[in-house]
Every structure is written in structure tokens, then in C-alpha cells.
Amino acid sequence: xxxxxxxxxxxxxxxxxxxxxxxxxxxxxxxxxxxxxxxxxxxxxxxxxxxxxxxxxxxxxxxxxxxxxxxxxxxxxxxxxxxxxxxxxxxxxxxxxxxxxxxxxxxxxxxxxxxxxxxxxxxxxxxxxxxxxxxxxxxxxxxxxxxxxxxxxxxxxx
Length: 158
Fold this sequence. Notes:
The protein has 5 helices and 10 strands. It has 158 residues and is of the alpha/beta class.
């Protein structure tokens, strides 16, 4: 199971106990916010795309939407989300539990600017009923294969 991979990944930092597991689904932003008793915008959703022949993740705030123009400016290609089958095969997690931890080798991770307005955020941890609360510096520290911060989302600025 992917959640076990994520816990093992966090064990190298002594943080596996911080992984939260719920008796209910947290597979969508709304369900995760309910399970965590927080605002949907604080859920750090991991969006999976293909750029050329490479799978990437863009981690963004729960209320942010991909801006196609900004995405194309950043990555040089139109946004093409992975199918559910591709996500599991290429990223290493199933849809509903995709996160920037314990991802497959070669997956590049980008953090969207929409996250920077929060002290802490809640990314998933490899299953459809898990999460971890991290500060933004901790997200930067523990996410795998971070390439850079990007600004590819819209509808989140007040």
C-alpha cells in the first residue's frame, strides 16, 4: 500500500507518527476538509500531469484551479492531466491519495504559490483516508524531488 511507503519515507525523519488516518474518505478536497475539520483551501492537493514524456506533480491549495495560460507559460505545453491508471503507474499513488512523498523515481514536484498564504497545509499521504499537517518550510523540506515554486493556478487570490 502507498500509505505504508509514505510512512516508511517519513520514518527516516522520525515523523511517521504524524501521518493521520481517518475512518472516513479524504479522497477529495471537500472530504479531506471535513475529515480534518478545516477549510478546503488548506488542503494541499497534488495534481498529476504529463510534460513531454515526464510525469510531474503540482501541489496547490484546495481552492486553486490550474490556469491553462500560466501552465503553458511555465511548462511550455498545454496542461494534460494523467488518467487514474497513469497516476498509479507513473506517480506511485492512487487517485485520492496522491501526494509529494514517496513518489516514483523521476517524478518532478512543483509547489504552487497558492500554498504560501498558509502557516500549515494538509497534503494526502498515499491513501484515500490519510493526511499530514505540515508548515510550508516542512513541505519544502519533505516533499520529494522539488524542482521549484511555480505560479500556475487561478481563483485563489482574494
